[in-house]
Amino acid sequence: MNATTGGRYLAVDPGEKFLGLAVSDPTGRLARPLQVLRHQSHRADAEAIARLARQWEVTTIVVGLATDVHGRATTLQARRARNLARHLRRVTGLPVVLWDETGTTQAARAVWAATRRRGRHRQRPDAAAAALLLQAYLNDRHPPPEPDAPLPEDAPWP
């Protein structure tokens, strides 16, 4: 499988100190948080992510790209994301897609703060932000069917 036919995707939500990681199911339809890595250097981060990509048999890596209110990727964080994407392409040989991460970190922090009080999440919200980023990317690639549309014959049972 390749990036155009599906397969498993890995998302990276790069932050200043931490990188949130998420992975899709094998069909490339559903995202879930995977883990959080502490940022070391672009090279070390790319090597750690490459190991996970091999372990999870990933076909494409999606890196979150911070944009400003006008949709331009001009921030320091955007430059860091581009540098990480370059290193990932070199280290993995996989397609690496930059994807707008606007709002994912804030949404993940809101959920994390609400559920943390009840003791459900002890990890940082970075992996959840990566899952939101990846799900947005997957939804764009595979829009959900219309509510009244018939299911395909080969649809997996949930």
Characterise the protein shown here.
By secondary structure, the chain is of the alpha/beta class. It has a single domain, classed as YqgF/RNase H-like domain (Nucleotidyltransferase, domain 5, 2-Layer Sandwich). The chain is built from four helices and five strands. It has a five-stranded mixed beta sheet, with helices on both faces. A hairpin with a 6-residue loop joins β2 (18-24) and β3 (31-38). It is globular and about 50 Å long. The relative contact order is 0.21. The model has no long low-confidence stretch (mean pLDDT 82).
List the helices and strands and how they pair.
Blueprint: E1 8-14, E2 18-24, E3 31-38, H1 42-55, E4 58-65, H2 76-92, E5 96-100, H3 104-116, H4 126-141
Parallel strand pairs: 1-4, 4-5
Antiparallel strand pairs: 1-2, 2-3
Shape: globular
Q: Taking strands numbered 1, 2, ... along the chain, how are they ordered across the largest sheet?
A: 3-2-1-4-5
Radius of gyration: 16 Å
Q: Helix/strand-derived class? A: alpha/beta
**Mean pLDDT score, rounded?**
82
Query: Strand-and-helix sequence, N→C?
Result: EEEHEHEHH
CATH superfamily: YqgF/RNase H-like domain
Distance between the termini: 22 Å
**Strand residues, percent:** 15-25%
Short précis:
By secondary structure, this protein is α/β, with parallel strands linked by helices. It has helices at 42-55, 76-92, 104-116, 126-141; strands at 8-14, 18-24, 31-38, 58-65, 96-100. It has a five-stranded mixed beta sheet with strand order 3-2-1-4-5, with helices on both faces.
Keywords:
single chain, 158 residues, alpha/beta, Nucleotidyltransferase, domain 5, five-stranded mixed sheet, 5 strands
